Amino acid sequence: MNTWNGEVLRISIFGESHGNGLGCVVDGLPAGIRTDADKIRHELNLRRPRGGNTTSRKEDDDYEIVSGVSKDGVTCGTPLCVLFRNRDARKGDYNTRIPRPSHADFSAYVKYHGFCDLNGGGHFSARLTAPLVFLGAIARCELEKMGILSAVSIKSIGNAVGKSFYDTDFRDDIFINTDCEFPLIDASCRDDMLRELETAKEEKDSVGGTVEFCMKNLPVGLGEPFFSSVESSLAQLMFSIPAVKGVEFGRGFELAKMRGSCANDEFDPVGVEEKIKGMNKNAQITYTNNAGGINGGLTNSMPLIMRVAFKPIPSIGQGLQSVDMQSFEPVIVKTEGRHDVCAALRGAFAVRSSACICMYDFLLKHSQYERNSHGYSE
Questions:
Q1: Does domain 3-250+291-377 have CATH number 3.60.150.10?
Q2: pLDDT tens track for 251-288
């Protein structure tokens, strides 16, 4: 099933990369949300191809809201359907009998008995992250109304490594300054990253990368233990983004090399008192944040930190061994023309949008719980 079942939201994705169009249907959005067209356009523009080290395919990502929103741009509480028409599709660029190495082509061909549309990856294409970014823009706006800020930064491209949110004091301006096409916490690594991209491009190759996501001012107690934990829910959405091969939270794999005496986040009594008594909702409750804002599957109010690893894009201009799936003859295949050099560049905004959708979903459930609890107390 191509549906994500959140705590409150239900999201179904449809369409193919080189079909007539693509989009999504979301059920569970509350009535009365005023959609901000400017902010939605801003998020979509960040995800769009922009030449250079991204695909030359020219899709403007104009969208049509088919249902669920009034003429004034306010959600009705009914299923919202958004549609993106493909304007620059080229099915003729692909020989769907020949699976491209490290793409979904072979597995999809077998699973769907050869009937699936494999042009440009079909339903498996990163093109289908456009509707996720649309929904993420709505979720991000609603989170910001609650004072919850989110940001994403390119952590690495190839061997070029940038700074982490851990290297900052989580000031508001960091969240504002990273809201750009090449989001970096510190621009001093930009030239090294650009060299990695240019070298891979010149060699008709691609390169992997990582992005880091941060969200601050979350309340305590979002999430559930075990199967609906914050980590497991976020990871499910992250691994739904094409080319994602790794996710870690907080210090992640670094923790495997540490002792508990170093890894544990000790409590700040002042911050705990201020938080529990409601004196300061932004109080820092622990001196460190190795857990990345999550304990036992629940948010603990410290900044949520997550890193996502993107594999090198498998579409490259070098010849690779493949096979004709009908004649079974060996074939050398290479991808000419339109593809990104590094998935992390545009994938960063799919990460931020998907994370915002997930945390907004938890907050919708949290607000329902708070209302029910308040009702019983009376």
A1: yes
A2: 999 999 999 999 999 999 999 999 999 899 889 999 99
